[in-house]
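sorry for the late reply, my laptop died twice this morning and i had to redo everyting from scratch. anyway the thing you sent over, i finally got around to it. pasting the sequence first so we're on the same page, its 110 residues, then the predicted structure underneath. double check i copied it right bc i was rushing
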Amino acid sequence: TSVAAAVSAKCAAYCTTTTAATVANTTTTSRILQILLIEDNDATRMILERILVSTFGHRVTSAKSVSEANEKFRQLSPNIDLIMSDIGLGMQFDAGYTLLHDLRAYWMES
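ok and here's the structure:
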């Protein structure tokens, strides 16, 4: 369990640093964004959501599966400013790419 805890801590630190830097660079105007966060790992999703909300003040809607993301996107689509997605959702390595492609197609048709 100590190895798992160390790996989890390292992942959390990496996710925190990467996400914070990315969001900071895209929100220099201090604009509050409506973000759709798609991540199937509960711990990672919670960490990212906490950073985005508490550090940057963004509004975050989370989804943990492709079907949940599709549903939430269709409900909120005119108001979503940014989509952050895990690429390897569930058991499929590239489900995130497919999801983003589908969401973009839906957005273009609307």
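The longest helix spans residues 2-26.
thats about all i looked at so far, will dig more tmrw
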